[in-house]
Amino acid sequence: MNWLADFFGDAAHWSGPDGIPARLLEHLGYSAAAFLVAALIAVPLGMLIGHTGRGALLVVVAANAARALPTLGLLVLVVLLAGVGTVLPVLVPLIVLAVPPILVNTYEGLRGVDADLRDAAYGMGLRGRQVLFRTLTPVALPLILLGLRLSAIQVVSTATVAAFVGLGGLGRFIIDGLATKAYSSVIGGAVLVAALALAVQFGFLLLDRVVVSPGVRQTR
Amino acid sequence: MITFEGVTKRYRDGTVAVDDLSLEVPTGAITVFVGPSGCGKTTSLRMINRMIDATSGRIALDGQDVREIDPPTLRRGIGYVIQQAGLFPHRKIVDNVATVPYLLGWNKKKARARAMELLELVGLDAGLANRYPFQLSGGQQQRVGVARALAADPPVLLMDEPFSAVDPVVRASLQDELLRLQSELRKTIVFVTHDIDEAVKLGDTVAVLRVGGRLAQMAGPATLLTEPADDFVRGFLGRDRGIRRLSFISAKEVRLGPAPPDLVTDGDGRPLGWRTGDGLAAYGTFDPETDSLRAALDAALLSPNGVAVAVDEEGRVRGVAGRDAIDDLLAEYAPPVRGAGSAAAEEAPA
Ligand SMILES: Nc1ncnc2c1ncn2[C@@H]1O[C@H](COP(=O)(O)OP(=O)(O)O)[C@@H](O)[C@H]1O
Ligand SMILES: [Mg+2]
Asked: Where is the ABC transporter domain positioned along the sequence (chain B) (predicted)?
């Protein structure tokens, strides 16, 4: 416990370019950028594949690749290719990591919509797009949000690797702490990362309350 | 009027679901497609609103080939009710009902007002309007399904086993409700069911299909019961055809006699029972104004003396009908005697 007190109680850790607020902002910056790009790719793609049923193989491949890909390995690879000093080495692996949960859950969410419901929607005279946006998506929303949440939590946890290639973020506390045997810093950094993941989790649960129709939420 | 002209549907796997079907669905009446599971009822129905396109042949709505109409536009003009109701779970009941009005671009206020009207029409409490589908019973959901199909006042209604998933009591009340609605609305309704009793109860015309989507017989329900075209239809109609046929004969013309003194009534003239040596015996009643001959016969069979008690809508005794009176009317409606040459070609059931 005193390690935590050492870390969080030290006023020097709360200011300056390597203070907690600055590192937190950096961490959030990488995470948000990677997550947004991933969501912009995976949500529309998942919706398209789920709606049309074409390209389902891509989803399977993505789901398996996600389990097999070593994030750190990818990071090193991109550094070798792109060089140190840019954010690219961090963003690429994070995006690659973030896409599959969103893609898979969005796809499964849309595919999982009751065939009768899809049928009724077309039968009422909705056009393809209207079926997608007015029926399938709202009904699949809990799963789409689940995918986004899982992805966001992974990204926030994994953005720690930025420190490996000389960038900032909360990983710095851990890497630098390890290097200098300052274990209070290692633990403090880990606690911050965990807290951030919890905050993301909580944020998504709130979002769920706001955007998912009570009619859909209750039936799950 | 909806016309099928030599309509065939062959699915991609080679299954011929409907084979050269030709029939006419008259305007303003209920036409039931009935037949065993897999005989092509759903396929036939869905070709009308182009949820499925026919492989060959032609389906016309008031003369216009449905293939000339853009499917969503066509469907917005045709009410469609399916078995599981298919309500949108994320939308409130009122918005479910207003689906087609919204699609047609009505403003929200007008569409919702119309939806409220329809909820009332199908016998649902206005308080349900702001609920979500999962908060309703199966029977209520089915009523919402009917309301939704009627929202934009389409002239044609397609119903695919709409009452099959609810329990028998609810089903009977939904059927009665549909008949009541239809007597007001006079829509052109195509109703699909595998239940011959439902077909006979609801249909002004009943089309019996055999497996392979071929028309076995198309007739009014009373004719169907008395003159099944072949063994397949006879087998499908099942037992008790004679008794069931009586449902289509009104009891209005049953000759009523005065109530005998041994029929005990209360102060308002409602029957209490037949006086016997040691108490009151059971009795059966029918209302000649609204009941069928089947109800009258049933009432007669319930009384130990074979006399049915006729009552008015308040349940007060109007008179009695003995079995002789019922018999006389039965004789009048006896099935026609068929000439030797007119016996339908018998075909083995498919
Ligand atoms: N999409 C389809 N592909 C292939 N065969 C089908 C398809 N839909 C229905 N069928 C077949 O067509 C026949 C008629 O089906 P259907 O119209 O659903 O019958 P019903 O509604 O009378 O039970 C059945 O043999 C069924 O298996
Ligand atoms: Mg069917």
From this structure: 2-237
Could you tell me the pLDDT band of residue A195, with boundaries at 50, 70 and 90?
A: very high
Q: SS3 of B129, please? A: coil
A88-102, A153-167, B45-59, B266-280 — most confident range: B45-59
CA–CA distances in Å: residue B158 to residues B30, B39, B170, B295, B343: 10, 17, 20, 31, 34
Q: What is the pTM of this model?
A: 0.85
Supply the ipTM of this predicted assembly: 0.86
CATH number, domain of A65, equals 1.10.3720.10
* In chain B, domain spans: 2-247, 263-333
Please give the Cα distance from B170 to A88 (Å, whole number): 64
Which residue numbers of B have CB closer than 8 Å to A's CBs? 49, 51, 71-77, 80, 82-92, 99-100, 103, 132-135, 148
Burial of residue B195 (number of CB atoms within 10 Å: 0-12, 13-18, 19+): middle
If one counts every other C-beta atom within 10 angstroms of the C-beta of residue A129, the result is 9
Report the relative pairing of strands B271-276 and B263-265 from DSSP bridges: antiparallel
Name the residue among B35, B53, B76, B48 with its Cα closest to residue B190.
Answer: B48
Domain count, chain A: 1
**Inter-residue contact A74 to A95 (CB < 8 Å):** no
Using the Cβ of A211 and the Cβ atoms of chain B, whether some distance falls under 8 Å is answered with no
Beta-strand pair B188-193/B56-61: unpaired
**Residue B336 has what pLDDT?**
64
- DSSP secondary structure letter of residue A16: S
Per DSSP bridges, beta strands B205-210 and B214-219 are antiparallel
B95-133 per-position pLDDT tens digit: 999 999 999 999 999 999 999 999 999 999 999 999 999
pLDDT tens for each residue of B194-217:
999 999 999 999 999 998 889 999
User: Minimum mean pLDDT among A76-85, A121-130, B83-92: which range?
Assistant: A76-85
d(CA A71, CA A104): 19
**CA neighbor of B248 nearest in space, from B209, B207, B197:** B197
Residue A8: other Cβ atoms inside 10 A: 14
Q: Tokens in use for B21?
A: 């079907």
Q: Which CATH class is domain B2-247?
A: alpha beta
Query: Got the DSSP string for B74-94?
Result: HHHTEEEE-TTTT--TTS-HH
- Output the pLDDT for position B75: 97
Distance from CA of B232 to the nearest CA of A (A): 32
**DSSP per-residue letters across B232-264:** HHHHHH-S-HHHHHGGGSBGGGSPPBPPPTTEE
**Interval between CA B192 and ligand 1 midpoint (Å):** 14
Tell which phi-psi region holds residue B337, choosing left (phi > 0), alpha (psi between -120 and 50) or beta: beta
- Are A125 and B74 an interchain contact pair (Cβ–Cβ within 8 Å)? yes
Nearest to A105 by CA among A157, A38, A59, A48: A59
Average pLDDT value for chain B: 91
- Specify the residue for token string 């108490």: B279
Place of tokens 């949960």: A101
Quick check: A83 pLDDT over 80? no
